[in-house]
Design brief:
This protein is of the alpha+beta class. It has two domains: 25-110 and 218-331, 3-Layer(aba) Sandwich (D-Maltodextrin-Binding Protein, domain 2); 119-215, Periplasmic binding protein-like II (D-Maltodextrin-Binding Protein, domain 2, 3-Layer(aba) Sandwich), CATH 3.40.190.10. The protein has twelve helices and twelve strands. The protein has helices at residues 2-21, 67-75, 88-95, 147-158, 177-182, 199-204, 211-215, 227-232, 234-252, 257-268, 294-306, 323-331, and strands at residues 26-32, 57-63, 82-85, 101-106, 109-110, 119-123, 138-141, 168-171, 189-191, 205-210, 218-219, 221-226. The strands form five sheets. It has a three-stranded antiparallel sheet. α9 packs across α12 (323-331). 40% of the residues are buried.
């Protein structure tokens, strides 16, 4: 009997081991907003470099209109990695109560010397010559609390111009900003990549100021995940970060630039030549180690507080967990 019991226990142990071995890969849903510019949209274009894909994890890119919708998805358990702007991070933590949110990697930065900085444009032949000229005028934004919205309000406040009291604000999509300006529905519009390379826009408009003029260097976007998901799936997350690092470094390598533009051209069904700026010094700055600039981010988040979008101070270092990235990077050395 004892021999039989030991045999049954041995079989059960083997079955348990086999069951663990056959465990389903962890599903990682990652947000993206702009094709190619958002890392989440482009990682699967280089599956050959994703050594752990389909083994310890599977990746599902999810399109969002912006950061606010990602906060809702995180709160509802419908998203594992959000691509949040600096302006959305404190709102997610304080207003949405996501206190276990953690910054796990950087996206791209604005205002790094030698790289692109977002522009706030007016008609080249229009009446707006200085920021003071915007008093009593209309400015456009993509939404309250968006990164460009914070940058715009921050600059106008320096000149004692406040929303509703001194200027009117209207909301519009980035793709429509040129038309809004041309039709004089707004006197100032925010411009980001790739819309900044619109030749017709350049013909009719000029920048009045840049994002870097408002806040210097800006950590525009960053990957965030909830601590409980990280803790429950740490091994798979490190595997994912290793693959992500390998892929992003490939895209950032100038030797691969021609192939990069061809990949993005196929993705968007447009000419590869339209993307000759991507991942160059005409683009935003992207750290090849995917590290966020936490010092810049702290200043950016402080501006969000100063503008009244959140009430409390936020120490961003308390909400950063770069250990996944550090462990993944050590594997690539």
């Amino acid at each position: 009997m004892r021999v039989l019991q030991r045999g049954l226990l041995g079989i059960l142990a083997i079955l348990a081991l086999c069951s663990a071995t056959r465990a389903e890969p962890v599903k990682i849903r990652i947000a993206w907003v702009v094709p190619a510019s958002s890392w989440g949209s482009i990682l699967l274009q280089k599956k050959d470099l994703a050594r752990h894909l389909g083994q310890s994890y599977v990746l599902e890119p999810v399109l969002f209109n912006g950061s606010p919708q990602q906060i809702t998805a995180l709160a509802n358990g419908e998203l594992e990695i959000a691509d949040l702007a600096f302006s959305t991070l404190p709102i997610a933590i304080e207003n949405a109560g996501l206190h276990d949110l953690r910054i796990i990697a950087g996206g791209f930065q604005d205002g790094v010397p030698g790289f692109y900085s977002q522009e706030f444009m007016v008609l080249a032949d229009g009446p707006i010559k200085t920021i003071e000229d915007l008093k009593g005028k209309v400015v456009a934004t993509v939404g309250s609390g968006a990164a460009v919205d914070v940058g715009m309000r921050g600059m106008l406040r320096r000149y004692d111009l406040e929303k509703d009291r001194d200027y009117t604000m209207v909301e519009e999509q980035f793709a429509n900003m040129r038309t809004v300006l041309l039709e004089k529905k707004a006197d100032l519009v925010p411009i980001i990549l790739p819309f900044a390379f619109d030749s017709e826009l350049r013909r009719i408009a000029r920048p009045l100021f840049h994002q870097r003029d408002t806040s210097g260097q800006t950590q525009l976007l960053m990957w965030t995940a909830r601590k409980r998901f990280i803790d429950a799936n740490r091994a798979a997350m490190v595997d994912f970060m290793e693959d992500a690092l390998r892929i992003t470094r490939w895209f950032l390598d100038p030797a691969n630039h021609k192939e990069v533009t061809e990949i993005v051209g196929r993705m968007t069904m447009r000419s590869p030549q339209r993307y000759d700026w991507l991942f160059t010094d005409r683009d935003y700055y992207r750290d090849p180690s995917m590290l966020p600039d936490l010092e810049a981010l702290q200043k950016n988040v402080d501006l969000v507080r100063d503008l009244g979008f959140v009430k409390d101070d936020l120490d961003v270092s308390r909400y950063a967990d770069l250990t996944l990235l550090e462990e993944a990077a050590s594997r690539l050395k």
